[in-house]
Protein 1
Amino acid sequence: MRRPCAVVFNYAGRHRYGLNVLMGALESVPQVASDLFVAWEFDELTQHISDALGGYDKVLVLWSFYSPEFWEACNSLSKVKESGSALDDPRIVHLCGGVHATGDPQRTLRAGFDRISVGEGERRIVEIATKLSNGDDIRTLALGRLDDGKYISAGFTEPIDLNSYPPFAPAHKRFNPIEITRGCIYACRFCQTPFMFKASHFRHRSVEEICRYAQMMKQEGKRDIRFITPNALSYGSNDKSVNMDEIERLLREVRLAIGPDAGLFFGTFPSEFRPEHVTPRVLRIMKRYVTNDNVIIGAQSGSERMLAESHRGHSLAPIFQAVRYCLDEGFVPKVDLIFGLPGEHEDELEASVLLAERLIRQKAEVNAHTFMPLPGTPWRNAEPGKLPPRIVNELDVLAKSGRLRGDWKQQIAIAADLHARSKSAISEAKSR
Ligand code: SF4
């Protein structure tokens, strides 16, 4: 007997945590929980879609990717549609969500995706999958679409309560770092996070829920517990202050939940600290519970003017102080710097190089990035980061020390490519 709706997750890209979260949300929906399929590669994607057409009335294909992967995803989508007449079947709906679709919904739709979901996905995917499996027509569902070339928005999804949804997909054993906080009260002009979640406040998962999921991971043989958060030291806080009591409670309870042998990582990949939050006290508390011997500090620039232009909300002084505190307390500070910010002059780039040199002399490390104008951010239309040869040479020299790392060189090319393609897509759209 045919089933109403299959959901195929396209895991071929890098944005897998977001898909895990959607899968976790769907695991609790009885109508579709047994109809979820994972495609790791392109061939598997086309295979799953073809197979599903044989046994289901509708096939919902989920896509989510970061902006640098947009064109690659567009190529994959075209290839899917061209790889056989069956794969251009109107029963197949390619639904795209995540940071890129949220930041640039129109261009995502014009690239060929059938529908988009803007904002947080958990609540909406449950609603959509439930309705499709009840026989509703896709055209009646609240999703962004094109109608005769005109963009019809379905609006942003309402922010969810993190405690109401799992941070991964336990039934499918798809685990990832636990998201402990969502949303950001800061609004750095290069960053998609605050604009993706359209919420000017932090929402935290409770310590009890975090412990529950940490224990679950441990029982499944995962040795390390890591956290996803815009600023690790904002956990438990509603504003710019640090809630030391709640941070200590989090670390203490998670450590108790997972036992002394498991890894507990806080303030390091995939999260970081804002520099002004770092104090000797918080680092001493961390030492009682965490496994990591390094922390990531978001500094972003060695120029006071560029810090102000970026709306970072801190000056250089807290960066120097945070690095000093980390070194004194035995943590290696890994400092993020972005080169080529909009309007950055050569002497300001040089200031960041000097900061990197100083950090390396102090035995800190530097994660170097090149600015990319990301959709949805205030700097989305800015020029991509370009580095004069002198700066490239200086960074190359620092990289030889082994203490400056990062994808800054590849990002010069990626940012230029994205920008060129975006410009040509815009002029193409205008000429239509
Ligand atoms: S860079 Fe960090 S602090 Fe700034 S907006 Fe993004 S998440 Fe918030």
Protein 2
Amino acid sequence: MEKRNLAPMIYKMVFKAPEIAAKARAGQFAILRIDDGGERIPLTIADVNSFSESITMVFQITGLTTEKLSVLEAGEYIKDAVGPLGKPSRVENFGTVACVGGGVGIAAVYPIAKALEKADNQVISLLGARSEGHLIFREELQRISSEFYAATEDGSFGSKGFITDPLKELLGKRKIDRIVTVGPGIMMKAVAEVSRPFGIPTVASLNPIMVDGTGMCGACRVTVGQEIKFACVDGPEFDAHEVKWDEFLTRLNAFKEEERLAMDAYHKEKCVNC
Ligand SMILES: Cc1cc2nc3c(=O)[nH]c(=O)nc-3n(C[C@H](O)[C@H](O)[C@H](O)COP(=O)(O)OP(=O)(O)OC[C@H]3O[C@@H](n4cnc5c(N)ncnc54)[C@H](O)[C@@H]3O)c2cc1C
Ligand code: FES
């Protein structure tokens, strides 16, 4: 495993995983287990190198398992990984596609944008982050994009505020055939609201809580239109105009207290041993 710190609390790790690297396609993810008895966490496959038979994952420390992952060093191993999981992103020649990434989701939008560009689409990248230092994969996305926009909350790069503002402006003056968005749920919901009046097909890659990742446990269920879908097998991409966003956002926070307790117990144990 190789490791790089990309931004505050955001790490890139490259894992040798020949079976996953051989089959992974844009938009898919893998589920990792760091240690014996550890939680299984889904992470998007941000890149594949078929020569080194490796996959790249980019993650943000949000709790116990991502923190445990972040302290591993190059050359170390994780317990296991299963993948590629989920349906690949729909890639065909749509015309002009706006790829909207936010926070760590920028790394997840990158493989989709790359595949769309390869399929002869004109890719317009729109990235949102807290500050310039959080704008990961900027050069990679600039390289494959015909146009590039960024917004930071503190105004340190691009326009000040949220990326939905430049998106709204763009939709008002250009014909966009499709929008793909990956990022915090609240951002994807806002992207859906901005694009709805324009009637532009918009897909969002959802990140609900997952357990098995194979459609058995129901943890990742989301309501899309009138139907219940399992994001791990029916997604993770769905029509953003049909997702019941408020329910999705509520379910995402369902285990906050348990997550906090797990983190506290881990830090306490570390402190006893230190
Ligand atoms: C298909 C998919 C792709 C993802 N890709 C990425 C990625 O590329 N990079 C990245 O940083 N994050 C990604 N995530 C989110 C990532 O899985 C969670 O941040 C991680 O599981 C948090 O675990 P934790 O123990 O560190 O934090 P916890 O303290 O357990 O949780 C913090 C928050 O993370 C989310 N979360 C917790 N457990 C899970 C779980 N089992 N499945 C999904 N979300 C969970 C919840 O919103 C929770 O409130 C993805 C999620 C999904 C479903
Ligand atoms: S994670 Fe269990 S059904 Fe999707």
Protein 3
Amino acid sequence: MSAETLVVNGDVKRLVEELNFAKKVERSLRLIRETYEQYGNRLVVANSLGKDSHVVWDLAKRVSPEIRGFIVTTRFKPSETKRFMRAEVARYPELRVFSHDEPIPDRLYATDPDRCCDVLKVQPTRRAIEEMGVDCWVTGLRCTEGRTRTDYREIEERDEGLVKLNPILIWHEREVWQYLALRQIPVNALYAEGYRSLGCAPCSRVSAGGDERAGRWIGTSKCGGECGIHTRPLRTSGELVHG
Ligand code: SF4
């Protein structure tokens, strides 16, 4: 990674406002390209089927059509998302799908959403990273999305030996839609209903206001929060995480 990247990496908030859209696209492509040169096939995109992931997926495909990805899905994803996922996987067979299909307690999302996310999202993500031999995973995380997303870097190593690249960290929501429109990239039909952040059906609502993630986990302690894939260890065993 170049020295310039490392220096500005520390000043994310300034870059959010100072770089224009074209410069951000250029920067994101450069981040993916340089990281891909370093990691090759061990670089994999995590595709959540949301708008941000689709920008990252398209940027990655511009860098190299060979770049692989994975989708973590759950039994609670809305039918629109499942339909959209099937279409995307048919279009890009290099997208692998991971899920947890064993029985879990009824309504675990209501009684213990942290545990539910851990079982249905974090564990399959951990499995994807292991089975696909990932040393660098690429995400669509953005620092302006909500209160839980302000403390990230474009390149980080929260798990030892597992680099995380957040190539659109400094993009505004508007710029995400700008990119999708300019590149004519299809999106999940739920966005037409007013959703701004997509998740599982019981835990996602249409929301308004400044916080994009305000519609997630409404009425629980996780409101506007995280499923855990960005906050929990991904290299450790399931037993440790559940302890
Ligand atoms: S988003 Fe809700 S339903 Fe989906 S895994 Fe998390 S708690 Fe469970």
